[in-house]
């Protein structure tokens, strides 16, 4: 009879690792949304019941991961919704904007096709609401609201595909390309939201081909805008 073998014993995990997991979970669940400021260090110490050094170590680890961002004199903010989002953002920031757009177009065209083939009754309503906010901001000439609504519309279209991983991949790319465009130029560039109403109607009709074509129209407008911004382009 073979002698029993001992199983390896895992060492106890550091408290700071548990705090990192907890804080990451708060970000991923949206309790700390991207762009929000996290509680100050004394508050986290009181809320979590751990020492100041433990909190500091955990926050620093998330800063290194690209999820949190310290701002001198203004606290610490959520920079990315997940480690994947942060990694995609780092990689995309080193790429040419047109290359990033190509990746975004592949993801969004695929998402539109999936959304058009899913026959999800709730997707068209959510898209129409997002589009209405964008068109309202365009009519009011509110560039900041228009830009935020444009981001929300594209994110809603990708969510309509029904694939959470696709949505997360897209958001990492979207952070870099859409959210870094100059607000005033971005608003003027496609205030008429080309292709947006068409993609909504295509998704509502369950027409995957038309949904993809509508996204191509939108991406063509974005590409023209990016090319116009290049050095030497006509004003």
UniProtKB/TrEMBL annotation:
Domain HTH gntR-type: 13-81
Membrane-spanning segments: none
A Pfam short name: GntR
Domain of life: Bacteria
InterPro entries: GntR_C, TF_FadR/GntR_C, Tscrpt_reg_HTH_GntR, WH-like_DNA-bd_sf, WH_DNA-bd_sf
Entry keywords, A to Z: DNA-binding, Transcription, Transcription regulation
Protein name (record): FCD domain-containing protein
Organism: Isoptericola peretonis
């Amino acid at each position: 009879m073979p002698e029993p073998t001992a199983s390896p014993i895992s060492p106890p995990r550091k408290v700071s690792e548990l705090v990192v997991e907890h804080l990451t979970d708060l970000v991923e669940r949206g309790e700390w949304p991207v762009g929000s400021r996290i509680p100050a260090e004394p508050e986290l110490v009181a809320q979590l019941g751990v020492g100041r050094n433990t909190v500091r170590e955990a926050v620093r680890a998330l800063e290194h991961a690209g999820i949190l961002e310290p701002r001198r004199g203004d606290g610490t903010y959520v920079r990315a919704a997940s480690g994947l989002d942060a990694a995609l953002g780092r990689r995309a920031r080193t790429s040419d904007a047109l290359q990033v757009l190509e990746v975004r177009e592949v993801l969004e065209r695929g998402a539109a096709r999936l959304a058009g083939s899913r026959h999800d009754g709730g997707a068209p309503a959510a898209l129409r609401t997002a589009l209405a906010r964008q068109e309202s901001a365009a009519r009011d000439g509110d560039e900041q609201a228009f830009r935020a609504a444009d981001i929300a519309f594209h994110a809603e279209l990708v969510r309509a595909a029904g694939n959470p991983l696709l949505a997360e991949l897209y958001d990492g790319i979207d952070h870099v390309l859409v959210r870094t465009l100059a607000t005033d130029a971005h608003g003027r560039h496609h205030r008429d939201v080309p292709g947006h109403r068409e993609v909504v109607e295509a998704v509502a009709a369950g027409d995957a081909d038309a949904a993809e074509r509508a996204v191509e129209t939108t991406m063509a407008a974005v590409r023209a805008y990016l090319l116009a911004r290049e050095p030497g382009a006509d004003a």
